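Notebook, student rotation project (T.W.).
Task set for the rotation: take a protein with a known small-molecule partner, predict the structure of the complex, and write up what can be learned from the model alone. Partner molecule chosen: zinc ion. Sequence and SMILES entered below by T.W., checked by me.
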Amino acid sequence: VADVAGVTKAAVWRGPGQLVVQDWPLPELHDDEVLVRVSCCGVCGSDLHIVDGGVPEFVPPRVLGHEVLGVIEAIGRAITGFAPGDEVSWEPSLPCRACFYCHEGEDGLCEQRVPILGGFAKRTVVPQRALYHVPPGLPDRAGVLAEPLSCALYAHDRGRLKVGDQVAVIGAGTIGLLLVMLARRSGASLVVVSDPNPRKRELALQVGADVAVDPGTEPAVERIRRLCGGRGAEVAFEAVGTAATCLDTLAAVRSGGTAVLVGISPPAATAPVPLFDVLRRDLTIEAVWLRRFTFQRAVALLPQLPVDRLLSHSVSLARIAEGFDLLRSGKAVKVVVEP
Ligand SMILES: [Zn+2]
Ligand SMILES: [Zn+2]
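Predicted structure of the complex:
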């Protein structure tokens, strides 16, 4: 395998706001690893935070990109079940399997997760332990949604929806829209979405929402409550990550209901929670971080959800900075980078 130990073109994060497309060394292929040619890689909201320098555990220089779809080019000697030509995606980090949380089966909380990024490049090396086959016959590029779907699935699980529940989703970005699809599939009797962006509201209706509320023209919480029998939703998901939308989500839930907080708030954000109201109405608040063993199900579900509707923009690796700007501007839902 001549080109295994070599270089690849990659968008290297070199410091706050700096993405430079350049040659990047490819490590030697170990026995339990595969070499993947990247087909495309989604840009995630978390990538914006990292590139801005807002996530302390990430230090430049480094190649980011964790929503990846690729094709195996070469395999290490110990690889079984995967072969060159296979289309794959992978978990962006692996638990250590040795810490307190891993032993408790709470791998999402592992303190020594090993990141496996590298999607913003032409080629990258991935351990077999992180790999999943992408089902055949998916729409072009739809496999990049495996990773965000694994996160949405975990949030969905934490909401413990029952068939017939009325569900609210605050925020119609990628995760919010995936939650809409999952709520629909789980038998929700009503799915209400709130988002100020008309394009995202339209998309929400296309992928399964019954009503899309514009919080810019009407109080979203009042509308949601009115639509849900005057009481509020059984389950409401917050998929934005601001204090105001977190408070809205609590207020949009009926007494005895569940608010699931998924959106990533800035580290210093705080919110004045109406404690007596939360207590008096017996609310359950689920705060969700990453995923726990949901990648397998996400991959299996991909062909059954209209995930390709979320793929709004595509840029080449050389123009990756434009892709980041598109996502930042709110014009895009899912931007993919195609090396
Ligand atoms: Zn992501
Ligand atoms: Zn661990």
